[in-house]
Amino acid sequence: MVVLVALSTGVSCLNVVFEFEGLRVATDSAYAAALGTAGSNALVMLLLDTQHYGVFIAQVFFGLWLVPIGYLAYKSSGLIPKWLGILLMVGATCYIVDLLAMFLVPDLGQKIGSFIIIPSAIAEITMLAYLLVFGVRVSKPDKNILAAA
User: Fold this and answer.
1) pLDDT tens-digit profile of 88-99?
2) How far apart are alpha carbons 47 and 149 in whole angstroms?
3) What residues make up the domain containing 30?
4) For the whole model, what pTM was predicted?
5) What is the dihedral of CA 72, 77, 79, 81, to 10 degrees?
6) Domain-embedded: residue 59
């Protein structure tokens, strides 16, 4: 589970390099002089497109991370509500569906991408808010525990 989040974080950090390099090529006149204006613009678009698709690769790992965390929340014996675990697993499914739609049917993916990602955002924000407000429920110790010792 932690490996999936670590991979997502690593890919996201690597994507910043492509974004930064695109900005550097766009603003440094030496690239335009060496490659020509059209070549420089094409390189900027290539770097920014690479960054854009890298976000989707990071999304795979982050979406897959929601599956085990949702399963653990579901099976937590009342420490975290079962409905929250189900919501997290639905969010993971939405991440993967969004990714598949974007790569397999790009036109459809662009149309539904903003809507299909909403359950994922709701799941993540709800989990965060639940943990901040209520925390994990802990069972109270039995009053007779000292008498038994």
Assistant:
1) 999 999 988 988
2) 67
3) 2-137
4) 0.73
5) 80
6) yes
